[in-house]
């Protein structure tokens, strides 16, 4: 049954927020907006779709290959056929926090 | 043959430095001192020894279970029998950088 990703906050100390996301086949991380710059560290390989206001794109992640994104990103993630686990590290205290929302659609 | 861990810097942008460490059985991360607070994200499970000025301690890491440590930590890591991969994220721009070295021994 496709459902919501399981999100577990592992560190949240005002400087960083570290959340582990575990997705089964077809699970989603519902529409959300990133208030802070963040780093994703895939724990497993992953194939998924990212849905933005401009459309859908198929993406791949490789275990141990982190990638960094900026504040303001707004999207939904829909997992593919394989379970996928990643760690998201948000840089809460760094200067880079998003300005006003760019897209009214809220999760 | 026991050797040095393979270290690959993946992000180094003045705000954070992200390095992937890959260790074979018995490989080491030679004696070093952490200048910045850091977060370790294990990609695989790991069993290893940490050697400090006060002695050795056996430790375990679990894939997807990050742990945070402070600047100033000074140690060597000696891997156990299984290959171990982890990602280290150093918070370079945050206020928490270490003061003078506490232990003269250099790697």
From TrEMBL, chains A, B:
Protein's recorded name: Cupin
Domain of life: Bacteria
InterPro entries from the UniProt entry: RmlC-like_jellyroll (IPR014710), RmlC_Cupin_sf (IPR011051)
SUPFAM superfamilies: RmlC-like cupins (SSF51182)
């Amino acid at each position: 049954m496709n459902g919501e990703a399981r999100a577990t906050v592992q560190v949240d100390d005002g400087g960083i927020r570290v959340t582990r996301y575990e997705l089964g086949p077809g699970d989603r991380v519902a529409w959300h907006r990133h208030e802070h710059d963040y780093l994703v560290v895939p724990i497993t390989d992953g194939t998924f779709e990212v849905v933005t206001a401009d459309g859908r794109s198929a993406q791949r992640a490789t275990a141990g290959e982190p990638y960094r994104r900026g504040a303001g990103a707004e999207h939904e993630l829909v997992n593919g056929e394989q379970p996928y686990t990643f760690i998201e590290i948000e840089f809460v205290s760094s200067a880079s926090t998003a300005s006003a929302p760019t897209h009214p659609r809220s999760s």
